[in-house]
Amino acid sequence: MEEGTPLTLSLKFFEHKKIFFGDFESDSELDHNFQVSDESVEVMVQREGEHLPREDYLKNLRSGESNMSVVRKQALDWILKAHTYFGFGAWSFFLCVNYFDRFLSISKLPRGINWFTQLLATACFQIAAKMGETKVPQYARLHVGSPKFIFEALTIQRMELLVLNTLEWKMQAITPCSFIGYFISKITCEKHQMKSSLSKSMKLMLSISTCIDFLEFRASEIAAAVAISVTRELEAKEIHKALSSLAMVKKERVLKCLELMKDMSVVKVSGNLFTNESVF
After folding, report:
1. For a FRET experiment, which of 23, 127, 178, 253 has its CA 20 to 30 Å from that of 86?
2. How far apart are CA 175 and CA 186, in angstroms?
3. CB neighbours of 16 closer than 8 A, spacing ≥ 6?
4. Do 137 and 57 fall within a single domain?
């Protein structure tokens, strides 16, 4: 991916805008994020499969079925604008995207109903705000970013209920935010570097969140790849050294995620990651 492409511009946007970091500003929140126990992380790795879109979702997006990839991009563009407007945290953003993808993967979009996707995005946004934010916007304030359609509060509430029922009320989703602080603390022990790396990690994870190719990976795999990319010199030997500290993730999957980030010019990696070094 060359300079000036949407993904590159997205990363630059996050580098220059202080948004989405309400959940990670205070020292106490940072310390809590870094001090998650090994046992808790192992449980999250085991549970993250419960909060994934259907296995054929990425295939359907890539095939262009029902124009889903365009629909998803438009919805996530609006979600991004809404989160920026309200200054919400990174966790609620990832929750919102997770809800949207899971719903879209198991429910066919009604044909000829242009407003449905926007209503779905609005409902997912509101549910995520209730899960991850201290202040939830009033329904009348949700019409940000010059949307094409305006919905009444009752309509949004009904859509929220449909989303909750469709997702079987499994709303405490595991996201990359669940792992990132822990992985950074495993790779580096210097507290000042941890805080700086956490901020960089959030920007990087947010910048790649709208790219469908990363739906191939689980939250833990994305978080591990991002943690390595912001804390290490990205030479193969340094990457394999970092991977040795992250025993609970599949190393070949993290390497594949790093390769994708490299291919999309999100990070620069020196050499071939898939070496014959004994790391697996």
Report:
1. 178
2. 18
3. none
4. yes
Q: Which two tokens stand for residue 193?
A: 């570097």
What's the predicted TM-score (pTM) here? 0.81
- Please tell me the predicted confidence (pLDDT) of residue 31: 43
Q: How many domains is the chain partitioned into structurally?
A: 2
Q: Give the residues across from 235 on adjacent strands.
A: 270
Cβ(11)–Cβ(266) below 8 Å: yes
Measuring CA to CA, which residue among 56, 143, 146, 44 is closest to residue 101?
56
The pair of structure tokens assigned to 98 is 């997770």
Residue 25 has pLDDT above 90, yes or no: no
Record the tokens describing residue 149, joined without a space.
């359609």
| CB contact at 8 A, 131 and 151 | no
Instruction: Flag whether 17 is in a domain.
Output: no
Handedness of CA 147, 76, 95, 226 (dihedral sign): negative
The whole-number pLDDT of residue 194 equals 76
